[in-house]
Structure formats: C-alpha cells, structure tokens
Amino acid sequence: MHFLVLRSHALNKMSRKVVELFYDVVSPYSWLGFEVLCRYRNVWNMELKLRPAFLGGVMHESGNRPPGMVPNKGLYMVKDLNRLASFMNVPLRHPSDPFEVMFNKGSLAAMRFITAVAEKEKDGYHLVENVSRELWKRIWSTDQDICEPASLSEAGLKAGLSSSEVEELLRLAKSQPIKDKLKQTTHEALEYKAFGFPLIVCHVGGKPQVFFGSDRFELMAHSIGEKWLGPEPNKPTSHL
C-alpha cells in the first residue's frame, strides 16, 4: 500500500504541467495574475515557476508602448484595474503619481533584488513570492518607494528575511552575475515573443503555450486540461 501511494505521488509529479510566470512589480496586471496563479498552485496539477524579469527591457525590445502613453488607454486602465482588483480580491490602489512611479523611477533595482532572492533561494519560490508581493504592495497599494535600498530592505524584512540576509541580498543585487541573470530571464521572455507582462507560459505535451495578461485564465485552464473556478478557487462562491 505504501509503495502504491509513493508511486501515485511520483506519477502525479511527473504529469504536472510546468507554468512559468514572467513578471515585473511595476506592472499592476502582473500582480493580479501572480495572486491568481499562486492561489491555483495547489488546485491545478501544475508546477508554478516565478520568473522575475524587467518589463522596461521587454517594452523596448518589442517596440511596444505603455498604455499610459496613450491617453484613452490610460483612462481605461484606471477603471479596468479598479474593477479587476475588486473582482480578484487584491488590495490594489493607484499611486498618487503613476507616471513618476512607472516611468521616471521604474523597477530595475527592485527586479535585481528579487532576482538576487531567487538566486539565493534555489529550492522553491517561497521567499521570491513573499518579497515580490511586499514590493507590489509598496508600489500598488500603499504608494511607497521601491527603488531605494531602504525601501528594498523594508520589503525584505516584511517578507520574512533577517537583517543580515537583506544586507547580503542588497550587495548581491548590485553584482554583475545578478544583472546578467535578470537580462537573461528578460531575454527568455522575449524569445516567447513577449511584448508586455504578465506573460504566462504553459508547457503542455512538450510545447509551450503563451498567454498575455491577467484575463486569460479560463482559456488557459481549457488549454492545460484544468477547471477555472474563478479568481478565488477555494471560495465556495467562486464563479464557475
């Protein structure tokens, strides 16, 4: 009996679909997609891989323009994010000066810091998830800075890192290997023809299926043979 249980677990692990999420904390839509995928990690038969990348690099290399640079798109995005935040139960609120936050300050330092966390963690994504969420909260919920070392330090401490770990990660984030790692992950997103984030790549039957945005989960579920149970799958009132 014990052997059969172990064999069942092994076969289940082998059959799990790998789902990669390429994201940047400067992107509010990435936060929505991130939270939903984290909720589904133990609902769908999938292995979720968090792939911190640099949205600025993807936008530049793909020739895309941010929605905020097109007035009508920018106006729509504000309403759209408010509706989605409520629907997905994510505490997303707009910063007082979105242009300053997204375009003048950007997220390069933050994404290098998260990349350093990922490089240090190696086994699993628990700390990467926690640190990413804390940085999203700072920029897209409490209207705080994510660029200064003190800001990254505060996010790291709230995510469960010790002071010494934070100091080590801040140093590591400035190193060439981490800068190169972030560039490499960004390049991998571009190889999937990324033009923005979130970019979700589902590996099914040896072939990648690519989805852009935080509103493709129903189609994604169909493609990987799973059921979409709404943005909060463990809630009995989830939409079917």
UniProtKB/TrEMBL annotation:
Claim: Transferase is one of the keywords in the record: yes
Residues annotated as catalytic: 27
Spell out the Pfam families in the cross-references.
DSBA
CDD domains under this entry? DsbA_GSTK
Please provide, alphabetically and separated by semicolons, the GO molecular function terms listed in this UniProt record.
glutathione peroxidase activity; glutathione transferase activity
User: DSBA-like thioredoxin domain location, by residue?
Assistant: 18-224
One GO term of the biological process aspect: glutathione metabolic process
- Report one GO cellular component: peroxisome
Q: What class of enzyme is it?
A: transferase
Q: What is its EC number?
A: 2.5.1.18
SUPFAM superfamilies linked to this entry = Thioredoxin-like
InterPro entries hit by this protein? DSBA-like_thioredoxin_dom (IPR001853), GST_Kappa/NadH (IPR051924), GSTK (IPR044088), HCCAis_GSTk (IPR014440), Thioredoxin-like_sf (IPR036249)
| The reaction(s) this protein catalyses | RX + glutathione = an S-substituted glutathione + a halide anion + H(+)
What UniProt keywords apply to this chain's record, in alphabetical order? Transferase
Q: Return the similarity comment.
A: Belongs to the GST superfamily. Kappa family.
| Name this polypeptide is given | Glutathione S-transferase kappa
Organism name: Tachysurus vachellii (Darkbarbel catfish)
